[in-house]
Amino acid sequence: MRADQVLLLSGPNLQLLGQRQPEVYGRVTLDEHVTLARDTAARFGLQVEHHQSDHEGRLVELVHAARTGAVAVIVNPGALTHYGWSLHDALATFEGPVIELHLSNPEAREDWRRTSVIAPVATGTIAGLGGLGYRLAVEAVASLLGRS
Ligand code: DQA
User: Fold this and answer.
1) Cα distance between residue 119 and residue 142, in whole Å
2) What CA–CA distance (Å, rounded) separates 114 from 92?
3) Ligand 1 contact via 102 beta carbon (within 6 Å)
């Protein structure tokens, strides 16, 4: 286990950030959010490994690998938030902090977005703060790991 490794996961469609519904998700690209997460992590001596996938099974495999390869998981599951039960089950097996992260505030949107199947297995959720959430998620992980 690498004591400094944080896994950052991005679910379906998040590679389109910057172009996708900018009025909801903003104009910042996923790469720019990841850079902010990495720069924040460096302040605490942490490293961020990032993966984006449109496929739930791929995200499940990455969580399995994190069980021995990372000390925390930050996940923006995209729409899998609302129905991704295999991602839920994978995260339930992870022993370190799990931060659920959303750019928008799903609670303030359509009814179907108000259910998160990830929240019950997350240590905490950050939502509705746009890109700031990436910095706050890493700061939360650092604090939970006793690094701040
Ligand atoms: C999202 C919110 C989800 O409801 C949506 O399906 C996304 C992005 C967010 O970051 O606000 O793809 O996770």
Assistant:
1) 20
2) 20
3) yes
Domain that holds residue 30: 5-144
- Structurally, the chain folds into a number of domains equal to 1
Please give the distance, rounded to the nearest whole angstrom, from the Cα atom of residue 58 to the centre of ligand 1: 18
Catalytic-labelled residue, pool 25, 33, 88, 134? 25
Q: What CATH number is associated with residue 48? A: 3.40.50.9100
User: What pLDDT sits at residue 1?
Assistant: 60
- 3-24 confidence digits (pLDDT tens): 899 999 999 999 999 999 999 9
How far apart, in whole angstroms, are the C-alpha atoms of residue 86 and residue 75?
14
Does residue 134 carry a catalytic annotation?
A: no
Q: What is the pLDDT of residues 80-99, one digit of tens each?
A: 999 999 999 999 999 999 99
